[in-house]
Amino acid sequence: MTIPTNQQVSAAFTFLPMEDIVHGVGSIERLGEILGQHNIERALLVTGKTLFNDTDLVKRVQAMSDNRICSVFYESHQHVPRQSVLKCVEQARTDGVDAVISFGGGSPNDTAKAVVMSLAEDVTAVADFDRLMIKFAYPDKIEIPSIAGSKAVPLIAIPTTLSAGEYTHFIGITDEQRQVKDLYIDKCLTAKVVILDPELTLATPEWLWLSSGMRSVDHAVEAICSTTAHPFTDALACHSLQMLYKSLRECKRDPKDLVARLNCQIAAWMSVCGLANVTLGLSHGTGHQLGARCNVPHGITSCVMMHNTMRFNKEYAKERLAWIAEILNVRDGEMDEDTAADKAADAIETLTKELGLPSRLRDVGVTVEDFRDLADDAIQDLIVATNPRPVTSADVVIELLHSAY
Question: Residue 5: pLDDT above 90?
């Protein structure tokens, strides 16, 4: 396999303070032991209404905690609106919790992180989020407030989807008034332990499991094509991409295949491991705002934007896109770089369709009339500024949105 040219790498490589990834069928049975190791006695479990009301999984998690879960918050909402975070924080304060456990997908996880941040920073009102969010002005003015890590309670994550936010140190929280998803970042928001038990994912709706898997594919693709690509993340993203490309199809064929589901979970972890050191691009940047403004689910944004962003970036990331074609085994020895780059984007689009997921903006309720507001919001996202193809104005984003429509 060809190894693409790397630009000179000269920086410190940051590892996040995550202690353990516990994985395998039945791993949830270790929850009480893990909580005891961290001296946790009064944990808040953050989850969603579907897991709480329609399954017995929340009760199962509670039963495995050795009575160390004192409270359950089950009203986390998609895209993590500020008001829902405040409601959860109020419950955490009232119950005097000493840790937070997230159980579910990206919304419970980001809500749980937001609670850790809010407890550490005494957040009591919507306006308090303004002083903690990342502030960015195109092209390179950025302010990242620090969070009081010494006051942060431990976070334990038990994911049931593949969005992989459990392994990061940032949060996306939506300002309902502005209809914009803001970013918050600090190492203290990193989970101490992540528990990957594929049995707990069997109740996850198929569309959510597979689309969140495409989100992890997006992590790997944009990491490989990054303007700050690094050999460490290249290696993990490469293998993650191969595993997801195979195992997501296996999950589609047999939703009860626990080996395929665990492989997807491990691949999702690999897709973001080390990503604190690598900048991403327009697929993620537009995805943030498609969620906040148009209520498109997190993973679905990658289904509609990723392959279109790959084509959009082709002339600026051709060598790396051609490498992705090799990784996915869709490039033969005679194929030139230009054709291979096209084949990579085509392969991602084909995978999306084979999984029964939407691949165009028009399929998910986004209209052309939304484009201007989406582009204006996206241009304020620092991820957009690091896209391989320079984004010099909101009009460039609108060009991409039209191609994805």
Answer: no
Predicted model pTM = 0.96
Give me the mean pLDDT over the 224-235 stretch: 95
Query: What superfamily would CATH give domain 206-404?
Result: Dehydroquinate synthase-like - alpha domain (1.20.1090.10)
The full set of domain ranges for the chain reads 20-201, 206-404
Sorted by sequence, the CB contacts under 8 Å of residue 153 that are 6+ apart come out as 97, 98, 99, 100, 116, 119, 120
Q: How far apart are the first and last CA of the chain?
A: 34
Tokens of 163: 């969005």
**How many other β-carbons are positioned within 10 Å of the β-carbon of residue 36?**
13
Listed in sequence order, the residues at least 6 apart from 208 whose beta carbon sits closer than 8 Å to its beta carbon are 105, 161, 297, 299
Residues 219, 237: contact at Cβ < 8 Å?
Answer: yes
Residue 9 reports pLDDT greater than 70: no
Task: Extract the tokens encoding 378.
Answer: 């996206």
Q: Which tokens is 140 given?
A: 């390179």
**How much is the pLDDT for 384?**
92
- Rounded CA gap, 100 and 339, in Å? 48
Query: Mean pLDDT across the stretch 112-139?
Result: 95
Phi then psi for 144, rounded to 5 degrees? -120, 100
pLDDT of 268-324, one tens digit each?
A: 999 999 999 999 999 999 999 999 999 999 899 999 999 999 999 999 999 999 999
User: 20-201, what's its fold?
Assistant: Rossmann fold (3.40.50)
